[in-house]
Amino acid sequence: MATLDDDSTAGSSSGNTGTDPEPTVIPRGHNDSDSPSTVEVDHTVLSSTEQVVYEPTSPDRAYQLEMLEVSLKQNIIVTMDTGSGKTRVAVRRIQAELERSPPGKIVWFLASTVALCSQQFSVLEKAIPAVQTKFISGDDGVDTWTNQTLWDAFLKDTSIVVSPHQVLLDALSHTFVRMEKLSLIVFDEAHNCVGRHPGSKVMAFYRDSKDAGLPIPAILGLTASPIMRSSLDYLEVIERTLDSVCKTPAMHKTELLSHVNHPSISCVKYGPQMDESYTPTMKSLDCVALGLDIFQDPYIIHLMVENTERSRIALAKALEKEDTNIFNQVRRLQRKSATVRRELGEWAVDFFLSTAVAQFLDSVGKEDATFATWPVKEKTYLASLLQKVETTVPSSPDDMKVSPKVAMLLEVLLSRQQDALGIVFVKETATVAVLARLLSVHPLTRDRFRVGSVCGTSRHAQRRRNVGELIRGDDDDLRDFRSGKINLLIATNVLEEGIDVPACNLVICFDEPANLKSFIQRRGRARMQKSNLVLLMDDPDSSRHTQWQELEQGMKRKYEDELREIKELDSLDDSNEESYVGPYYVPRTGAKLDMDQAKPHLEHFCAVLGSRQFVDWRPYYVMHKVWHPKSRLPQMKATVVLPISLPRELRRVDGENFWYSEKNASKDAAFQAYVSLHKAGLVNDYLLPLDDSELLEGVETRPPMAFFRPLWMPWPQVAQGWTEAGVDSLLYQRPIKVLDQGQILCEFDMVLPLAIPHIPAFNVYREKHSSWKVEFGELSRAATSKEDQTMRLIDLAYGHRIALKENDQHVVQFRSRSQAMDVDHLGNQQLTQELVTSFGSNFPYLIRDTFRNPYFFEDWLCSRPPLDLVQNFDKCLMEHPTDVPWLSLRKWSRRQDFLHPIPDNPGVISSKPYKRIWPASLCTIDTSDIRDLQFGSLIPSITHMVEIYLVASQLSATILKDLAITNIDAIVSAISSPAAREASNYERVEFLGDSILKLLATVNVAVIHPLFPEGYLSKKKDLIVSNSRLCRAAETTGLTQFILTTQFTGKKWRPLYIQDLLSEGSEEQTSSRQESTKVMADVVEALIGTCFLEGGMMKALHCIRVFIPEVKWYDLDTGRKVLASRSSKSTHLPDYLISLEKSIGHSFQNKKLLLEAVTHGSFSLGTSTDLCMERLEFLGDAILDNIVMSALWELKLSEQDMHLLRTALVNADLLGFLVMEWSIPQTTAHVIDGSVIESIKEKPMWKFMRFSSPEIVARQQATEKRHAEERKVILDALHHSPTYPWSLLAHLNIPKFFSDLFESVLGAVWMDSGSMDVCRGFVERAGILAYMRRMVDDKVDIMHPKNKLGELEATKVVKYEILRYPDTGDLACKVFIDDEFVVEVGGGVNKEEIKTKAAEAAYYKIRKS
Q: What are the Helicase ATP-binding domain coordinates in residue numbering (predicted)?
């Protein structure tokens, strides 16, 4: 059936199941109001990234990798602008540390605020999911962790800890954590770590350990502004404190600048301040404050009542300074209200006071947790005081009075275009919420800006809260700002540092930045194109921001020593610096490469090499500088780093010489790399990347049908044997028995002048519902004197239809074992009533009519019956008398093929009692036994069976001689195509051989091409296993002349006369037969499978060598050892992979293999020893296929069932789902109220994958979310549904790297163990084989819906038309059969899923109709 679809069906990784939600079927011509009025017809394949919307991400940039390289060699402070990706550098550095650290070490990430810690914890947990990362802050009550046991429990199996500086400082101070326990400390916003800062004190413990010669961690600092004060000496202080050197990208400075946008800066004057007259609400608050009686204060009363020495001292101090919580709260509220009045205006202060008072009174009345740390009496007393404040409801926003400062802010905001996305920084926390409210309701801004606020104050339950801290939703507002729901954020300096905030195009400093650090950090938030930084100032002539910019440039000059020579080095790039590298020539072709061509050639090679998603294939360069005493400028040598999919020796290549110019240094490295690639065979002799024509060299295009040599016939050779057979020559015979339900009907000897192969018993189908069995006895010598009865037997059965030659022998002789035969027995006696009566109903002879046609006798009729009771009447008998005896007869079968069952004839069965009648006087009988005639009728079928076994024997003795296959039956099956309709065909064993060939070819191409990446290996493997290559193997070896493709029907069968065969044998055969090229290839695979069944993998390999001799073939064990010998060895496994190793069920001797198996192609830590999973996944794919094939073979299923089951079991969607389900229990501990609370956390296998692509993080998150929502339905389908869940699995849209991980781990297990049994245990543990057994036992319908629809409409064209709804992005699919609309289904999330659902809906609709 033709299908207008460019995707595969049965092999696809999507489909539907009986437990799926009902597809949304849209009737044709629908007019649903929710449906789009227009749709876009989309005939393109959706990329995987179109299925889920997430923020754009990018691969690691060259300058980030440069910083990583430097950080691996020394302690550094990465100094790059806000938004340039410092955290990305930290993530990579942490990954590298985890790889090289001994067991038990911890990476500690320090950040200045809880909010920043929370953000960085989230980043690290997603970017490095394989390890256990924990976040700890004061909110966790860490100050109550007063013994080592609590800390040890918390840190057990933990690889990364994120916390504020004070947490680590306290732990070090109390020796709960020791410096030697840490492998790396990361200081975010490192510029803060000076003086008495907790980060500086942490480094004091570091210096003590260093001075004592104890192990110390590596240090990594991150900052956008390494100085905070107006002194360049501050830079040296930070470097000394962190024992690090400030570094900024030097070699890739240009790229860094291209990713950093500095805003235009402007200062605006907001005019004179308003008079500071109080509003009525403020005056009422002042009255309450003036009326305070300190002796009524609950705290004072408590001290007086307690009357201890301590309380008396405290009482005196409190009375002297009026220092009580109540007094302080009222004063603070006064100060805040004055600030709000001055900064924002009258409306704002009334709103602030009325809201603050109302929130406090409401909290006290509800007894909620907001002020839970306050003593009850103090809350009650303050509430009684605040109830006296006469708050004024703020005036209508339309009549709002604002300060000149706010008026200028409004003017600035309104001056922006409609695309404004901004942050307003303010100094006072009290101002934040009020200003946010003001802008939300002001008539000039309420319809244009969606306003939120962020203060970042601690929410620890034990922190004492103050009146006037207006309750906000900081987290929600920040999240909404990131998502775009909010476009204006009012914030304190908490948003200056570290917090992940989207790039803005407008930053307004409502108050002047406090210092240079604050200025740089705020400016860094405005990093969109055409962005603005606006400073509101009371002095428009202030040059403070200009001074800050000048100071920043001085700071950069101090830590960017490399920039001093940048201009001079840049001038050298265009100079005539002598180039003395190359050129490189290829003598065979004359191709030439010089240094100037090398970089573009290398970039093109990497681009061609790259095919995997999420992998950055671009080469990058690492510069190494050397200073010479006689030169004021450094020289440099470059190392080019190529993709991780290349072998170690080709991945990092050094330039040959030192250069003053960075460009020349990189050209040199690129030149050396490209020469190495050519020498490694990865670049052709034209100095271009290998293309398919070279990788697949030798693959010819073959049409589906081709002409081949005719089938080899054994009979000329047998006929020649008869001519050479004398009295003393050997003849061979095998006894033949024909049995009916175990009873012997007749026995004959079959005689040939050569050894007759053993032929297994086979059925012959004489009648529609019954069969006989033909059995062959042991081979023995035959007497030459015994009479040949073959032609007499043929004459009995076929003489009435075939003109037989006289005095000529048949090539196969048959001799009766019981009696001699005479040809005169045929129809030589007249039939009489007396003879009939004497035998009764068991008449033993055949009746023959006038034309010698044989019949079975049924009845003696005294006269001719009415013709309307006769089924068949010969008109030539119309004139014969009717009143004489007639016979009722049943016609002898005209069939000559008894090897195949009689097909059902749907014709009408006649009710007439007489099948055929004939006058008795015109009939004769055969006096020979009817069983002789019956045996004679079987001679064509028996001869055919002898023929195919002689063909198989000849094949075994020639092409397959060295294989010594003892089972001729198996060879017959292997060479029998389904079209030949022999008792068995090659389909099952070809399925087996295909898997074995794929496995051996996979291993061997990996051995033969050790430097090839996976993409090249796949093409080389495809070359070997392609149908065109196997067909050529069958043709060149002569196998094609032994392949049975034509069904035996017997219709044109004629006796095989010896003399005729001798004549034909002397003539040269020039004819050919047209056959399927795939059939020829299938037979090669079938013979491989046959050899495997008889002699295991070694014999199968021997067979492969016969047909594909040009490949140097290794057996599995030798190939594995060769591959294993090339892998670097290690007995060390990073801590975080130990639990995965246990879950796999195999203890790796070479731990490097497991590390390689979990390493995605995007992973890069700047080292040359990393290997990615691709080659192991290449091996694992073939191993998985072989394991599943072997398991299916054991169940003795049909080839079709095995094919469908294999497709269902090894498709990427199911493997990906099983990887998501495979979880490893890990114990984690948290400390709550001073007690260790342990819990078991299930970590799925996929989280152990090592990667560097940020896009993978987004895909993992999206997939994890869908999995959590849909796993129960899918699991229920896998365990109970009568149909396979094709579309449910497709709906998950699992990225391929999930299934790649499974196959690569399987490949690693095989590489390390060399045992298929161990590998099978891994596959069993994954649940694949258990589900296979469930599908077989419960007869699960596993055919893909698209295939089912194709079979249902086999003669018609099925077309799938994908529709995309522009407003929602959802997909729908229309199905047409021969251009006739059938059904439309909507609600799809990806192309394959919606097509599968549509196919299922169409299938059931057509069946019902």
A: 67-244
pLDDT tens-digit series, residues 253-284: 777 777 777 777 778 887 776 666 888 888 88
Same-domain status, 949 and 998: yes
Rounding to the nearest 10 degrees, give the CA dihedral for residues 600, 606, 611, 613. Answer: -90
Residues 42 and 110 in one domain: no
Check which CATH number belongs to the domain holding 471 and give it. 3.40.50.300
Domain that holds residue 1398: 3-55+1346-1408
In a domain, 507, yes or no: yes
Tell me phi and psi for residue 1269, to 5 degrees: -75, -30
- DSSP-derived secondary structure for 141-187: TGGG--SHHHHHHHHTT--EEEEEHHHHHHHHHTTSS-GGGEEEEEE
Nearest residue to 766 (alpha-carbon basis) of 915, 938, 914: 938
pLDDT in tens, 345-368: 888 888 888 888 888 888 887 777
pLDDT class of 829 with cuts at 50, 70, 90: confident
Q: How far is CA 559 from the centre of its chain?
A: 45
Cβ-contact 449, 548 below 8 angstroms:
no
Q: For residues 940 and 794, state if they share a domain.
A: yes
Residue 1404 falls within a domain, yes or no?
A: yes
Tell me the CA end-to-end span of the chain in Å, nearest whole number.
21
pLDDT of 40 reads 32
Q: How does the average pLDDT of the chain come out, rounded?
A: 84
Residues 163, 221, single domain; the answer is yes
Of 503, 532, 549, which one is at a domain's C-terminal end?
A: 549
Please write down the long-range contacts of 1236-1240, taking CB distance under 8 Å and 24 or more positions apart. Answer: 1236/149, 1236/150, 1236/153, 1236/154, 1238/153
Kindly state whether residue 1388 falls inside one of the protein's structural domains.
Answer: yes
The enclosing H or E element of 972 equals helix 968-975
The answer to whether residues 1307 and 1178 touch, using CB atoms and an 8 Å cutoff, is yes
Categorise residue 231: left if φ over 0, alpha if ψ from -120 to 50, beta otherwise.
beta
Token pair, residue 505, equals 């195009």
The runs of H, that is alpha helices, within 1222-1285 are: 1254-1280
Whether residue 756 sits in one domain with residue 743:
yes
Distance between CA atoms of 1279 and 1284, rounded to whole angstroms?
Answer: 10
What per-residue confidence (pLDDT) applies to 1091? 96
Which of 1040, 1075, 1107 marks a domain boundary? Answer: 1107
CA 1065 to chain centre: 60
Number of domains in the chain: 8
Distance CA 883, CA 1060 (A): 51
Give the closest residue to 665 by CA, choosing from 678, 675, 653: 653
Give the pLDDT band of residue 839 (cuts 50, 70, 90): confident
Q: What's the CA gap between 399 and 1348, in Å, rounded?
A: 72
Q: Does residue 974 sit in the same domain as residue 1074?
A: yes
Tell me if 401 sits within 8 A of 345, measured CB to CB. Answer: yes
Question: How confident is residue 577, by pLDDT bands cut at 50, 70 and 90?
Answer: low
Residue 1206: give its domain's CATH number: 1.10.1520.10
Whether residues 1012 and 1032 share a domain: the answer is yes
682 shares its domain with 725: no
